[in-house]
Amino acid sequence: MTTLTVDQIITLTQVLVILMGIGIVWAIYYGSERAELPGDASIPNANEADDSVPDTRGRTL
């Protein structure tokens, strides 16, 4: 048997779900201000050679 009542289990579940939601939102938006958005990318110079390895850091849409 458990030592928690039904009300305590429901309250604990609600608190854990809220904390999990905050954690998910933080994980999605952490560092998103450094994301390269459409229209923000610089136009490469046609006279320069392409990068041999593309830069995959950051987030893109």
Overview of the molecule:
With 61 residues, the chain is mainly α. It has one helix at 6-29. The chain is rod-shaped. The chain starts with 5 loop residues before the first helix and ends in a 32-residue tail after the last helix. The model has no long low-confidence stretch (mean pLDDT 81).
How much of the polypeptide forms β-strand, as a percent range?
Answer: under 5%
Average pLDDT score: 81
Helix- and strand-based class? mainly alpha
Quick one: overall form? Answer: rod-shaped
Low-confidence stretches: none
Major β-sheet profile: none
Number of strands: 0
Beginning-to-end CA distance, first to last residue:
50 Å
Instruction: Output the helix-strand order.
Output: H
Integer-rounded radius of gyration: 23 Å
Counting H and I runs of at least 4 residues, what is the number of helices? 1
What share of the residues lie within helices? Answer: 25-40%
Tell me the layout of helices and strands.
Layout lengths: L5 H24 L32
Note the main attributes of this structure.
mainly alpha, 1 helix, 61 residues, 39% helix
Short description:
The chain is mainly α and 61 residues long. 39% of the residues lie in helices and 0% in strands.
